[in-house]
Design a protein that fits this description.
It is built from eleven helices and 13 strands. The protein is α/β, with parallel strands linked by helices. The chain has two domains: 212 residues, Rossmann fold, CATH 3.40.50; 65 residues, Alpha-Beta Plaits (2-Layer Sandwich), CATH 3.30.70.100. The strands form three sheets. A six-stranded mixed beta sheet has the order 5-6-7-3-8-9, sandwiched between helices. Strands 11-12-10-13 form a four-stranded antiparallel beta sheet, with helices on one face. The chain is globular. The chain starts with 5 loop residues before the first strand and ends with a helix. The model has no long low-confidence stretch (mean pLDDT 89).
Length: 303
């Protein structure tokens, strides 16, 4: 059986009397875009540092593709890349030169630099010094640096923080493209809209503890059980929904498809529509959204 890209068990980190991370357990499966959702100060960044072997846990264990990053960091991190907090570069060097140095030091594929600069939309600024880059450009350069390793697992810590709306849109689009290329992604964020748009599974962390871990569809199914679907072909989408097990009461109204569904059926809608060649513009519960459920979980003390 193939090991999961990331498996965390009872992870704990203390600093004297301060408990920063308390018994965090989660698993990221191949192909996931996994949201690690929590407010600032919840313990997300400390968790990521332990996951990458940058700091040693007080207790618990981390496995990256079955390898322990504390026991053998070279083997464990072979298929892993990303950045924690803001990526760091030499400001007096160009974006291209920074990538060349990183490829040389890390043994990455320097022959892909031009390709990756196009992927992150920095080809036109590759020769400029990084000190002249905007925050969003530095974030995108950080992703290019991570992709030099051709990772199977990409860990991103708040990649849209500090970006303007256009920069946030571009970063989310990039994450979707990378996921579409088969890269497993763990996305640490405090933005609920980001999780709703990008992630299929998530963990909600508060005060260092996991309050929810599972699929986004299962969490949203705690709403009234009805969903609104916007698709490229609403009529055909409605026909497809009518034959999916677990979906009932399918109606077409104002160009949207409405239906009632259990969690498993709702999670399968996108797959069935994709197989039918129908694009999904939006699939959202008609009742409580992620924001309301998030506060119910974190403020209600639900485990």
């Amino acid at each position: 059986m193939t090991a999961a890209p990331l498996d965390v068990r009872a992870l704990r980190k203390t600093y004297g009397e301060l408990v920063a991370v308390d018994d965090v357990t989660l698993s990221v499966a191949a192909g996931d875009v996994y949201g690690y959702l929590g407010p600032n100060g919840a313990g997300k960044t400390t968790s990521l540092r332990m996951m990458l072997g940058l700091i040693r846990p007080t207790g618990g264990e981390v496995r990256l593709f079955g390898q322990d990053p504390n026991a053998d960091p070279v083997a464990a991190l072979a298929g892993v890349a990303g950045f924690v907090e803001e990526p760091a570069f030499y400001p007096y060097l160009s974006g291209r030169r920074n990538l060349e140095m990183m490829a040389t030091l890390d043994g990455g594929d320097g022959g892909r630099i031009d390709e990756l600069l196009h992927v992150v939309d920095l080809a036109h600024r590759a020769g400029d010094r990084v000190r002249g880059y905007s925050h969003g450009m530095r974030q995108r350069l950080g992703i290019a640096a991570a992709l030099l390793r051709s990772p199977r697992l990409l860990l991103l810590d708040e990649p849209t923080t500090g970006l303007d709306p256009a920069g946030m849109r571009d970063m989310r689009g990039m994450v979707k493209r990378l996921a579409g290329e088969g890269i497993t992604i763990l996305l640490s964020t405090h933005l609920m809209s980001e999780v709703e748009q990008l992630c299929n599974r998530l963990a909600i962390i508060q005060l260092g503890r996991i309050r929810y871990e599972g699929t986004l569809a299962e969490l949203l199914a705690r709403s009234d059980g009805r969903y609104r679907l916007e698709a490229t072909d609403p009529g055909r989408a409605a026909d497809v929904c009518r034959v999916i097990a677990g979906i009932t009461d399918v109606t077409l109204q104002d160009g949207s498809v409405w239906f009632a569904a259990d969690a498993d059926a709702a999670a399968s809608v996108s797959v069935h529509l994709a197989e039918a060649g129908i694009g999904v513009r939006a699939l959202v519960p008609s009742g409580r959204g992620l924001e309301e459920l998030f506060f119910e979980i974190t403020e209600g003390g639900e485990e």
